[in-house]
Specification:
single chain; 123 residues; alpha+beta; 3-stranded antiparallel beta sheet; 2 helices; 18% strand
Length: 123
């Protein structure tokens, strides 16, 4: 009778030790993830965000909404004439004087031809 009760108590002790070690591992895992979150989130000034953080945000989630598109003056590499192009042009733009392709459309911004230089229009 003593042997059976002693055997059951050893099994119960072993089971209790396993569950306590699992709880300790879970607790360690949760505390390390909490430490990770506290380390990654820094204090950010919401009223005066940095220019870099504003550029990364979606155009509607910025402090002041602004578009990503712009007009630009593109200089032709052949004849050096200047043509105004939209940054997200959906058609290929040709130089009016020498008929060289200045930009080709992509899914978003237009890709300038090699050798073309540009500057944003301030208007």
């Amino acid at each position: 009778l003593d042997a059976e009760s002693h055997g059951e108590s050893a099994a119960q002790q072993e089971q209790a030790a396993r569950s306590s070690s699992r709880q300790q591992q879970e607790h360690k895992g949760s505390s390390s993830s909490t430490q990770h979150f506290t380390m990654t989130f820094g204090v950010e000034d919401l009223l005066h965000p940095s220019l870099a953080s504003e550029k990364r945000k979606h155009k509607l989630k910025r402090l002041v909404q602004s578009p990503n598109s712009f007009f630009m003056d593109v200089k032709c590499p052949g004849c050096f004439s200047i043509t105004t192009i939209f940054s997200h042009a959906q058609t290929a733009v040709m130089c009016p004087s020498c008929a060289v392709v200045l930009c080709q459309p992509t899914g978003g911004k237009a890709r300038l031809t090699e050798g073309c230089s540009f500057r944003k229009k301030v208007d």
